[in-house]
Amino acid sequence: MEATVKIFRFNPETDQKPHFETYTMPVESTDRVLDLLEYIKGNFDGTLSFRRSCAHGICGSDAMRINGRNYLACKALVKDVGLKIKVEPVLGLKVIKDLIVDMDPFFEHFRSVMPYFVNDEPPPAKERLQTIEERERFDDTTKCILCACCTTSCPSFWANQEYLGPAAMVNAHRFIFDSRDRAAAERLRILNDQFGVFRCHTIFNCTIACPREIEITQAIGELKNAISTGALE
Ligand code: FES
Questions:
Q1: Looking at domain 2-101, which of 3.90.550.10, 3.40.50.10350, 3.10.20.30, 3.90.1150.10 is its CATH number?
Q2: How far is 201 from 204, CA to CA, in rounded Å?
Q3: Ligand 1: which atom is nearest the Cα of residue 74?
């Protein structure tokens, strides 16, 4: 089989504007798009730039737009995306080079929701215990790998990058509903901002894009509900 891969290219040092380049290569149906990009880099153009590290869907570094949808390139198989493949950088973040975007605004939003455990009470002699039900309450949102597939597939984020975006909210959810944490009310105040949870219009793009299958829209709904009912004040 042969695949045609059309890739967004932009080198700010030499290009006035972005363009696409197309490459043709032999593929197997089980090849990943990341394999194809590595092949192109190794055989056609060593200057092709993209992020990747683990190649196993864990590090979250190779989020990109493949045939118009956000994927991790290491989890997108040829048999799923087809033999005509268009690869672009994710939307809503500035392109640094080719498929690499500036992730700083994304991580600033992540940091702004206090994504860490807060509890100043004296620690118990052993660990801080939780029931199975208490641990399950936030299990889904512990799975986030900060790839940005969700935030950069969100039309509300495309419209205004001040919007915290789904990934920051997923990580706020992970601590807000942790029975051991004591900063839920403070985080909810941050999320109740004009650029917070109520900018979510329940479009579900984030849930569809998440490579970890986190029920993101549901998690955001739980945050909206917590703010509206004052349950965690
Ligand atoms: S390279 Fe690590 S998630 Fe794809």
A1: 3.10.20.30
A2: 8
A3: 4
Distance, CA of 200 to CA of 59 (rounded, Å): 26
At 59-111, the pLDDT tens digits run 999 999 999 999 999 999 999 999 999 999 999 999 999 999 999 999 999 99
Q: How far apart are CA 12 and CA 32, in angstroms?
A: 28
Residues 6+ apart with CB under 8 A from 45: 21, 23
51 CA: nearest ligand 1 atom: 1
pTM for the model: 0.95
Domains of the chain, by residue range, sit at 2-101, 104-229
In this structure, the number of other CB atoms found within 10 A of the CB of residue 134 comes to: 13
> What's the CA-to-centroid distance between 145 and ligand 1, angstroms?
10
Give me the architecture of the 104-229 domain, per CATH.
Orthogonal Bundle (1.10)
